[in-house]
Automatic annotation (TrEMBL):
Biological source species: Ureibacillus massiliensis 4400831 = CIP 108448 = CCUG 49529
Catalysed reactions, as listed in the record: (R)-glycerate + NAD(+) = 3-hydroxypyruvate + NADH + H(+); (R)-glycerate + NADP(+) = 3-hydroxypyruvate + NADPH + H(+); glycolate + NADP(+) = glyoxylate + NADPH + H(+)
One Pfam family per UniProt: 2-Hacid_dh
Protein's name in the database: Glyoxylate/hydroxypyruvate reductase B
Domain called D-isomer specific 2-hydroxyacid dehydrogenase NAD-binding: residue spans: 108-287
Gene Ontology terms: cellular component: cytosol
EC number: 1.1.1.79, 1.1.1.81
Family: Belongs to the D-isomer specific 2-hydroxyacid dehydrogenase family. GhrB subfamily.
Domain D-isomer specific 2-hydroxyacid dehydrogenase catalytic intervals: 5-318
Taxonomic placement: Bacteria, Bacillati, Bacillota, Bacilli, Bacillales
Keyword field contains Oxidoreductase: yes
Keywords from the UniProt entry: Oxidoreductase, Pyruvate
Length: 321
Protein backbone atom coordinates (compact mmCIF):
# COMPACT_ATOMS: atom_id res chain seq x y z
CA UNK A 1 0.00 0.00 0.00
CA UNK A 2 1.28 3.48 -0.89
CA UNK A 3 2.05 5.87 1.98
CA UNK A 4 -0.53 8.62 2.44
CA UNK A 5 0.71 12.17 2.01
CA UNK A 6 -0.89 15.58 2.49
CA UNK A 7 0.36 18.50 0.43
CA UNK A 8 -1.07 21.56 2.16
CA UNK A 9 0.34 24.34 0.00
CA UNK A 10 -0.15 25.30 -3.65
CA UNK A 11 2.67 23.70 -5.66
CA UNK A 12 3.38 23.06 -9.33
CA UNK A 13 1.57 20.08 -10.87
CA UNK A 14 4.98 18.46 -11.57
CA UNK A 15 5.64 18.33 -7.82
CA UNK A 16 2.32 16.58 -7.14
CA UNK A 17 2.96 14.16 -10.01
CA UNK A 18 6.39 13.33 -8.61
CA UNK A 19 4.99 12.55 -5.14
CA UNK A 20 2.10 10.60 -6.65
CA UNK A 21 4.50 8.15 -8.31
CA UNK A 22 5.11 6.62 -4.87
CA UNK A 23 2.45 8.06 -2.56
CA UNK A 24 -1.28 8.53 -2.27
CA UNK A 25 -1.71 12.34 -2.25
CA UNK A 26 -4.40 14.50 -0.65
CA UNK A 27 -3.92 18.05 -1.91
CA UNK A 28 -4.99 21.31 -0.31
CA UNK A 29 -4.01 24.37 -2.33
CA UNK A 30 -4.48 26.46 0.76
CA UNK A 31 -5.25 25.88 4.42
CA UNK A 32 -7.98 28.16 5.69
CA UNK A 33 -11.02 27.90 7.93
CA UNK A 34 -12.93 26.13 5.12
CA UNK A 35 -10.30 23.48 4.38
CA UNK A 36 -8.81 23.00 7.86
CA UNK A 37 -11.44 20.51 9.16
CA UNK A 38 -10.86 18.26 6.13
CA UNK A 39 -7.10 18.65 6.56
CA UNK A 40 -7.38 17.53 10.21
CA UNK A 41 -9.45 14.55 9.12
CA UNK A 42 -6.82 13.54 6.53
CA UNK A 43 -4.08 13.86 9.13
CA UNK A 44 -5.41 10.86 11.01
CA UNK A 45 -3.89 8.38 8.57
CA UNK A 46 -1.23 10.58 6.92
CA UNK A 47 2.37 9.30 6.81
CA UNK A 48 3.83 12.51 5.43
CA UNK A 49 3.01 16.20 5.14
CA UNK A 50 4.50 18.72 2.73
CA UNK A 51 4.10 22.49 2.90
CA UNK A 52 5.35 25.49 4.82
CA UNK A 53 4.71 27.64 7.87
CA UNK A 54 2.13 25.27 9.45
CA UNK A 55 2.70 25.10 13.20
CA UNK A 56 3.62 21.48 13.84
CA UNK A 57 3.28 21.12 17.60
CA UNK A 58 2.02 18.58 20.12
CA UNK A 59 -1.64 19.44 19.47
CA UNK A 60 -1.27 18.87 15.73
CA UNK A 61 0.88 15.76 16.15
CA UNK A 62 -1.69 14.20 18.48
CA UNK A 63 -4.01 14.25 15.46
CA UNK A 64 -1.46 12.46 13.28
CA UNK A 65 -0.60 9.10 14.86
CA UNK A 66 0.82 7.59 11.62
CA UNK A 67 3.11 10.48 10.70
CA UNK A 68 6.67 9.62 9.63
CA UNK A 69 7.94 12.69 7.74
CA UNK A 70 7.28 16.44 7.95
CA UNK A 71 8.75 18.18 4.92
CA UNK A 72 9.01 21.97 5.02
CA UNK A 73 9.12 23.98 1.79
CA UNK A 74 11.38 26.52 3.52
CA UNK A 75 14.83 26.72 5.01
CA UNK A 76 13.51 28.09 8.31
CA UNK A 77 11.91 25.52 10.59
CA UNK A 78 10.79 27.52 13.59
CA UNK A 79 7.27 26.24 12.84
CA UNK A 80 8.35 22.76 13.95
CA UNK A 81 8.55 21.48 17.51
CA UNK A 82 11.70 19.41 17.00
CA UNK A 83 11.86 17.71 20.44
CA UNK A 84 8.24 16.59 20.03
CA UNK A 85 8.96 15.27 16.51
CA UNK A 86 12.09 13.48 17.64
CA UNK A 87 10.30 11.85 20.60
CA UNK A 88 7.78 10.44 18.11
CA UNK A 89 10.58 9.42 15.70
CA UNK A 90 9.16 11.65 12.97
CA UNK A 91 11.71 12.97 10.45
CA UNK A 92 11.75 16.69 9.65
CA UNK A 93 13.31 18.22 6.53
CA UNK A 94 13.86 21.67 5.03
CA UNK A 95 15.13 23.26 1.80
CA UNK A 96 18.45 25.02 2.44
CA UNK A 97 20.90 26.66 0.00
CA UNK A 98 18.98 26.71 -3.28
CA UNK A 99 17.17 29.87 -2.13
CA UNK A 100 20.28 31.76 -0.95
CA UNK A 101 20.71 33.88 -4.09
CA UNK A 102 17.02 34.77 -4.38
CA UNK A 103 16.70 35.82 -0.74
CA UNK A 104 19.92 37.83 -1.02
CA UNK A 105 18.39 39.65 -4.01
CA UNK A 106 15.39 40.48 -1.81
CA UNK A 107 17.68 41.86 0.90
CA UNK A 108 19.49 44.07 -1.63
CA UNK A 109 16.10 45.19 -2.96
CA UNK A 110 15.01 46.22 0.54
CA UNK A 111 18.28 48.06 1.17
CA UNK A 112 18.08 49.98 -2.09
CA UNK A 113 14.34 50.68 -1.80
CA UNK A 114 14.68 52.04 1.72
CA UNK A 115 17.86 54.04 1.19
CA UNK A 116 16.74 55.53 -2.13
CA UNK A 117 13.07 55.83 -1.08
CA UNK A 118 11.90 54.05 -4.22
CA UNK A 119 8.32 53.10 -3.12
CA UNK A 120 7.74 56.58 -1.70
CA UNK A 121 8.94 58.29 -4.88
CA UNK A 122 7.05 55.85 -7.08
CA UNK A 123 3.89 56.93 -5.27
CA UNK A 124 4.94 60.58 -5.66
CA UNK A 125 5.34 60.24 -9.44
CA UNK A 126 2.14 58.25 -9.93
CA UNK A 127 0.06 60.73 -7.94
CA UNK A 128 1.13 63.60 -10.17
CA UNK A 129 3.39 65.34 -7.67
CA UNK A 130 6.40 65.50 -10.04
CA UNK A 131 5.93 69.04 -11.28
CA UNK A 132 9.48 70.40 -11.21
CA UNK A 133 13.03 69.25 -10.54
CA UNK A 134 13.42 67.02 -7.52
CA UNK A 135 14.17 69.01 -4.38
CA UNK A 136 16.70 67.80 -1.84
CA UNK A 137 14.01 66.88 0.66
CA UNK A 138 13.38 63.84 -1.54
CA UNK A 139 17.00 62.73 -1.77
CA UNK A 140 18.02 59.38 -0.34
CA UNK A 141 21.34 58.12 0.98
CA UNK A 142 24.04 56.09 -0.76
CA UNK A 143 24.25 52.36 -0.37
CA UNK A 144 27.55 51.80 -2.19
CA UNK A 145 30.77 51.96 -0.16
CA UNK A 146 28.90 52.07 3.15
CA UNK A 147 29.31 49.64 6.05
CA UNK A 148 26.92 46.67 6.10
CA UNK A 149 26.61 44.69 9.32
CA UNK A 150 25.16 41.20 8.88
CA UNK A 151 23.88 39.42 11.99
CA UNK A 152 23.74 35.77 10.97
CA UNK A 153 26.18 35.39 8.11
CA UNK A 154 25.26 31.86 6.97
CA UNK A 155 24.08 30.71 3.55
CA UNK A 156 21.90 33.72 2.78
CA UNK A 157 24.10 36.16 4.68
CA UNK A 158 27.09 35.12 2.54
CA UNK A 159 25.13 35.72 -0.67
CA UNK A 160 24.24 39.18 0.67
CA UNK A 161 27.89 39.84 1.54
CA UNK A 162 28.93 38.82 -1.97
CA UNK A 163 26.54 41.27 -3.61
CA UNK A 164 27.26 44.07 -1.16
CA UNK A 165 31.03 43.74 -1.20
CA UNK A 166 31.85 42.73 -4.77
CA UNK A 167 28.98 44.63 -6.39
CA UNK A 168 28.53 47.70 -4.20
CA UNK A 169 31.98 48.07 -2.67
CA UNK A 170 30.55 47.87 0.85
CA UNK A 171 32.60 46.93 3.90
CA UNK A 172 31.11 43.92 5.64
CA UNK A 173 30.98 43.40 9.39
CA UNK A 174 29.31 40.28 10.72
CA UNK A 175 28.30 38.58 13.93
CA UNK A 176 27.58 34.86 14.37
CA UNK A 177 28.26 32.47 17.22
CA UNK A 178 31.14 31.08 15.12
CA UNK A 179 33.44 32.52 12.44
CA UNK A 180 32.66 32.26 8.72
CA UNK A 181 36.21 32.12 7.37
CA UNK A 182 35.06 31.60 3.79
CA UNK A 183 33.18 34.93 3.82
CA UNK A 184 36.14 36.59 5.52
CA UNK A 185 38.41 35.50 2.67
CA UNK A 186 36.04 36.07 -0.23
CA UNK A 187 34.31 39.29 0.83
CA UNK A 188 36.70 40.71 3.41
CA UNK A 189 34.01 40.25 6.06
CA UNK A 190 35.20 41.25 9.52
CA UNK A 191 33.98 39.31 12.54
CA UNK A 192 32.94 41.47 15.48
CA UNK A 193 30.76 41.56 18.55
CA UNK A 194 27.10 42.40 18.13
CA UNK A 195 27.62 45.74 19.92
CA UNK A 196 30.51 46.76 17.68
CA UNK A 197 28.52 45.81 14.59
CA UNK A 198 25.54 47.89 15.74
CA UNK A 199 27.68 50.93 16.51
CA UNK A 200 29.65 50.92 13.24
CA UNK A 201 27.16 49.84 10.57
CA UNK A 202 25.25 52.08 8.16
CA UNK A 203 22.98 49.15 7.33
CA UNK A 204 22.20 46.35 9.76
CA UNK A 205 20.81 43.20 8.19
CA UNK A 206 19.34 40.49 10.42
CA UNK A 207 19.59 37.02 8.87
CA UNK A 208 19.61 34.50 11.75
CA UNK A 209 17.08 31.72 12.17
CA UNK A 210 14.37 32.27 14.79
CA UNK A 211 15.32 30.22 17.86
CA UNK A 212 14.86 30.72 21.62
CA UNK A 213 18.33 32.33 21.57
CA UNK A 214 17.54 34.80 18.77
CA UNK A 215 13.99 35.70 19.87
CA UNK A 216 13.82 39.53 20.08
CA UNK A 217 17.61 39.73 19.70
CA UNK A 218 17.07 43.21 18.22
CA UNK A 219 15.46 45.17 21.04
CA UNK A 220 15.51 48.60 22.68
CA UNK A 221 19.17 48.44 23.68
CA UNK A 222 20.27 47.26 20.23
CA UNK A 223 18.34 49.96 18.33
CA UNK A 224 19.71 52.62 20.67
CA UNK A 225 23.22 51.46 19.81
CA UNK A 226 22.71 51.87 16.08
CA UNK A 227 23.63 55.10 14.30
CA UNK A 228 20.75 57.57 13.95
CA UNK A 229 21.43 57.48 10.21
CA UNK A 230 21.38 53.68 9.99
CA UNK A 231 18.84 51.54 8.17
CA UNK A 232 17.66 48.22 9.59
CA UNK A 233 16.79 45.30 7.30
CA UNK A 234 14.99 42.19 8.53
CA UNK A 235 14.56 39.23 6.18
CA UNK A 236 14.85 36.51 8.85
CA UNK A 237 11.73 36.09 10.98
CA UNK A 238 9.55 38.74 12.63
CA UNK A 239 10.09 37.28 16.07
CA UNK A 240 13.84 37.91 16.00
CA UNK A 241 12.91 41.56 16.54
CA UNK A 242 11.11 43.27 19.41
CA UNK A 243 8.66 45.02 17.10
CA UNK A 244 7.52 47.51 19.77
CA UNK A 245 11.14 48.56 20.24
CA UNK A 246 11.63 48.88 16.48
CA UNK A 247 8.54 51.08 16.18
CA UNK A 248 9.79 53.24 19.03
CA UNK A 249 13.29 53.51 17.51
CA UNK A 250 11.82 54.67 14.19
CA UNK A 251 9.42 57.13 15.82
CA UNK A 252 12.14 58.56 18.05
CA UNK A 253 14.64 58.91 15.18
CA UNK A 254 17.08 56.49 16.80
CA UNK A 255 17.40 54.88 13.39
CA UNK A 256 16.67 56.34 9.95
CA UNK A 257 14.57 53.63 8.36
CA UNK A 258 13.76 49.98 7.98
CA UNK A 259 13.20 47.47 5.19
CA UNK A 260 11.08 44.61 6.48
CA UNK A 261 10.07 41.36 4.84
CA UNK A 262 8.92 39.65 8.04
CA UNK A 263 6.75 40.65 10.99
CA UNK A 264 5.71 39.42 14.41
CA UNK A 265 2.21 38.81 13.08
CA UNK A 266 1.83 37.59 9.48
CA UNK A 267 -0.16 38.73 7.60
CA UNK A 268 0.55 42.07 9.32
CA UNK A 269 -2.43 43.73 10.98
CA UNK A 270 -3.57 46.95 9.34
CA UNK A 271 -3.24 48.96 12.57
CA UNK A 272 0.49 48.24 12.82
CA UNK A 273 2.25 51.64 12.94
CA UNK A 274 5.02 50.31 10.69
CA UNK A 275 2.58 50.51 7.78
CA UNK A 276 2.19 54.26 8.19
CA UNK A 277 5.85 55.27 8.33
CA UNK A 278 7.33 56.74 5.15
CA UNK A 279 10.80 55.56 6.08
CA UNK A 280 9.70 51.93 6.30
CA UNK A 281 9.51 49.67 3.26
CA UNK A 282 7.49 46.50 3.70
CA UNK A 283 7.16 43.31 1.66
CA UNK A 284 4.91 40.32 2.47
CA UNK A 285 7.51 37.64 3.36
CA UNK A 286 8.75 37.37 -0.23
CA UNK A 287 12.37 36.39 0.49
CA UNK A 288 12.40 33.36 -1.82
CA UNK A 289 9.23 34.14 -3.75
CA UNK A 290 10.23 33.80 -7.39
CA UNK A 291 8.70 31.22 -9.72
CA UNK A 292 12.05 29.54 -10.31
CA UNK A 293 13.14 29.27 -6.70
CA UNK A 294 9.77 28.32 -5.23
CA UNK A 295 9.51 25.53 -7.83
CA UNK A 296 12.97 24.21 -6.90
CA UNK A 297 12.16 24.41 -3.19
CA UNK A 298 8.89 22.51 -3.60
CA UNK A 299 10.61 19.84 -5.69
CA UNK A 300 13.43 19.46 -3.16
CA UNK A 301 10.87 19.24 -0.35
CA UNK A 302 9.04 16.54 -2.32
CA UNK A 303 12.30 14.60 -2.76
CA UNK A 304 13.00 14.88 0.96
CA UNK A 305 9.51 13.63 1.76
CA UNK A 306 9.59 10.66 -0.60
CA UNK A 307 13.09 9.69 0.46
CA UNK A 308 12.08 9.66 4.15
CA UNK A 309 8.94 7.65 3.44
CA UNK A 310 10.97 5.10 1.44
CA UNK A 311 13.09 4.45 4.54
CA UNK A 312 16.12 6.45 3.41
CA UNK A 313 17.84 9.32 5.20
CA UNK A 314 16.42 12.40 3.41
CA UNK A 315 19.02 14.73 1.83
CA UNK A 316 17.97 17.65 4.03
CA UNK A 317 17.19 16.01 7.32
CA UNK A 318 17.01 18.61 10.11
CA UNK A 319 19.23 17.61 12.98
CA UNK A 320 18.54 19.15 16.37
CA UNK A 321 21.55 21.33 17.35
N1 LIG B 1 12.19 36.23 4.52
C1 LIG B 1 12.22 35.06 3.91
O1 LIG B 1 11.42 34.79 3.02
C2 LIG B 1 13.24 34.07 4.29
C3 LIG B 1 13.71 34.00 5.56
N2 LIG B 1 14.66 33.08 5.91
C4 LIG B 1 15.16 33.06 7.27
O2 LIG B 1 16.57 33.20 7.24
C5 LIG B 1 17.14 32.31 8.16
C6 LIG B 1 18.58 32.04 7.79
O3 LIG B 1 18.67 31.22 6.67
P1 LIG B 1 20.08 30.63 6.16
O4 LIG B 1 21.02 31.71 5.85
O5 LIG B 1 19.76 29.64 5.11
O6 LIG B 1 20.55 29.86 7.47
P2 LIG B 1 22.04 29.45 7.88
O7 LIG B 1 21.87 28.41 8.92
O8 LIG B 1 22.85 29.15 6.68
O9 LIG B 1 22.61 30.79 8.54
C7 LIG B 1 22.17 31.26 9.75
C8 LIG B 1 23.26 32.08 10.38
O10 LIG B 1 22.79 32.60 11.62
C9 LIG B 1 23.82 32.44 12.60
N3 LIG B 1 23.21 32.32 13.92
C10 LIG B 1 22.40 31.35 14.37
N4 LIG B 1 22.09 31.57 15.66
C11 LIG B 1 22.72 32.71 16.00
C12 LIG B 1 22.80 33.46 17.20
N5 LIG B 1 22.16 33.05 18.32
N6 LIG B 1 23.53 34.59 17.22
C13 LIG B 1 24.20 34.98 16.10
N7 LIG B 1 24.16 34.33 14.95
C14 LIG B 1 23.43 33.19 14.90
C15 LIG B 1 24.54 31.17 12.18
O11 LIG B 1 25.90 31.17 12.61
P3 LIG B 1 26.35 30.42 13.95
O12 LIG B 1 25.71 29.08 13.93
O13 LIG B 1 27.83 30.40 13.89
O14 LIG B 1 25.83 31.28 15.06
C16 LIG B 1 24.52 31.29 10.67
O15 LIG B 1 25.60 32.03 10.22
C17 LIG B 1 16.20 31.10 8.10
O16 LIG B 1 16.29 30.30 9.27
C18 LIG B 1 14.85 31.73 7.95
O17 LIG B 1 14.27 31.98 9.22
C19 LIG B 1 15.15 32.21 4.99
C20 LIG B 1 14.68 32.22 3.71
C21 LIG B 1 13.68 33.15 3.24
O1 LIG C 1 10.88 32.08 5.06
C1 LIG C 1 11.23 31.26 4.26
C2 LIG C 1 12.15 30.21 4.51
O2 LIG C 1 12.53 29.54 3.55
O3 LIG C 1 12.52 30.01 5.68
Amino acid sequence: MKPKVIIYKKVDRKVIDFVQETCDVTYFENLDSDTYPEFLHSLKDAHGILGSLLKVDKTLLDQAPQLKVVSNISVGYDNLNLPELSERRILATNTPELLNETVADTVMGLMLSTARRIPELDHWVKTGQWKSNLESQWFGVDVHHKVLGIIGLGGIGAAVAQRANLGFGMDILYHNRSRNEDAEQKYGATYCSMDELLEKSDFVCLMTPHTPETEKMMGKREFEMMKNSAIFINCSRGKTVDEEALIHALQAGEIAGAGLDVFTMEPIEMDNPLLYMKNVVTTPHIGSATHETRFKMAMLAAENLVSGLMGEIPPNLIKAR
